[in-house]
Amino acid sequence: MATFRDASPIIYTEDLPASLAFYRDRLGLPETYRFPDDGEAVFVGLNGVSLAAVTDGETGSHGLPIRPRAGRQFEMCVYTDDVDGAVGELRDAGVPVLVEPADQPWGERMAYVADPSGHPVMICATA
């Protein structure tokens, strides 16, 4: 049986430079791969991402439906040491805030912002 490892989600975006400015430059995920090497990139790999799955049909903590048929096929979760400070910096940079920081019953502080394509991005920290 095959062994699989290092799963990575791929974000479909209509504006790769805007997504890179958000994920690479704002959130600090280091660029690990670029194609093509020269000229305008059409694919860029970023490090520091893991994969999770959630049941279709639920409503996410951000209030948006989790329904691939509705165009919400992706959500990113990014951990930070200071949710309030991180969300403040993102807001100041013009990033839309979907849900303000709040403590959660499972022991994390969590907020949501939107990436340039409108995908919800959870910003959280362990309390």
From TrEMBL:
The keyword Transcription does not apply. It comes from Paractinoplanes rishiriensis. The keyword Oxidoreductase applies. Keywords: Dioxygenase, Oxidoreductase. This is Extradiol dioxygenase. One of its GO terms (molecular function) is dioxygenase activity. It holds the Pfam family Glyoxalase. SUPFAM superfamilies: Glyoxalase/Bleomycin resistance protein/Dihydroxybiphenyl dioxygenase. Coiled coil: none annotated. Residues 5-126 form the VOC domain. The lineage of its organism: Bacteria, Bacillati, Actinomycetota, Actinomycetes, Micromonosporales.
